Amino acid sequence: MAKCLMCPRGCAVDRNSGERGFCGASNEYIIGSADLHFWEEPCISGRNGSGAIFFSGCNLRCVFCQNRDISRAVLGKKYTESELIAKMLELQSRGAHNINLVTATPYAFFIARALEKAKKEGLSIPIVYNCGGYESLDTLRALDGLIDVYLPDFKYFDENLARSYSAAPDYARIAGEAICEMHRQVGKLVLDEKGIAVRGLIVRHLVLPACREDSKAVLKYISEILPAAEVTLSLMRQYTPDFADADAPKNLKRRLTSFEYDDVLDYALSLGFDGFSQGRESAKKEFTPRFDK
């Protein structure tokens, strides 16, 4: 790619010549892990697991990222397009409920081509696009018809938080436009007879310590741009300070309190959202993926 504009940062680097932009990705697929994954929302993981492919590199690189080994260092194994397609088909053969493309944004155009080929070779399970919410509309439109389930984060509303934690002060506007486009493509969440997602939009929001008012602002904003009944909300409680940068703000060095999470959950219900919540036990380092295999 001679001029990379795949995400809203618009770095315009020449990835063909080895230049790397904010995300750190090159023209080669770098994958940190590709295996059955059992710790997503119940309608994604199901009984058999989600076929999760964790791509290395990230256009947000949050200061509290639990996948920092691959989002920052871009560690992992190099895959060719044919190897990626083969891995998707292998995960399908092992009973995966879906192919879960995690942090695929830096490779989105390449993945679109690979998905078209994989479907011709027999890939038939739903495709999940699991992302940080900081997405270009042009890139999302290039994925139209290839993605069955969109699973974006909506991290912040306040631009100062977005700047401080993810170097993206325009995050709320970009994420808002992105989830509207995702909803246009796939609509409301649809489950099969076994409760597995086959199509639709699930929006994740991770409640951060000392940020509950911003969490409420995020939820209010979502309810203003899309009907709450059309959005399945996954309200996440799993924040753990184990992965926060050494110089991260003080509030990110502690765990979320029950009061903070429950207050945001009550507000979500008052707005009419339905979806998924998490228990206190989810905030454990042990539940995060390992990338040292």
Instruction: Tell me the span between the first and last alpha carbons.
Output: 30 Å
Question: Count of helical segments?
Answer: 9
Q: Uncertain segments of ≥5 residues (pLDDT<50)?
A: none
Number of strands: 10
Radius of gyration: 18 Å
Helical content band = 25-40%
Q: What summary fits the major beta sheet?
A: 10 strands, mixed
Structural domain tally: 1
* CATH fold-type name: TIM Barrel
State the shape.
globular
| The CATH architecture | Alpha-Beta Barrel
CATH class annotation: Alpha Beta
Coarse structural class:
alpha/beta
Residue fraction in strands: 15-25%
Mean pLDDT: 94
* Topology as a string of helices (H) and strands (E): EHEHEHEHEHEHHEEHEHE
The CATH superfamily is Aldolase class I
Features:
10 strands; alpha/beta; single chain; 293 residues; 9 helices; 31% helix; TIM Barrel
Brief synopsis:
This protein is an alpha/beta fold. The protein has helices at residues 42-45, 68-71, 81-93, 108-120, 137-142, 159-166, 171-186, 212-225, 258-270; strands spanning 29-37, 50-55, 77-79, 99-102, 127-131, 149-152, 190-191, 197-206, 232-236, 274-277. Helix 3 packs across helix 4 (108-120) and helix 8 (212-225) packs parallel to helix 9 (258-270).
Give the secondary structure arrangement, pairings included.
Layout (H helix, E strand, L loop, with lengths): L28 E9 L4 H4 L4 E6 L12 H4 L5 E3 L1 H13 L5 E4 L5 H13 L6 E5 L5 H6 L6 E4 L6 H8 L4 H16 L3 E2 L5 E10 L5 H14 L6 E5 L21 H13 L3 E4 L16
Parallel strand pairs: 2-4, 4-5, 5-6, 6-8, 8-9, 9-10
Antiparallel strand pairs: 1-2, 1-3, 7-8
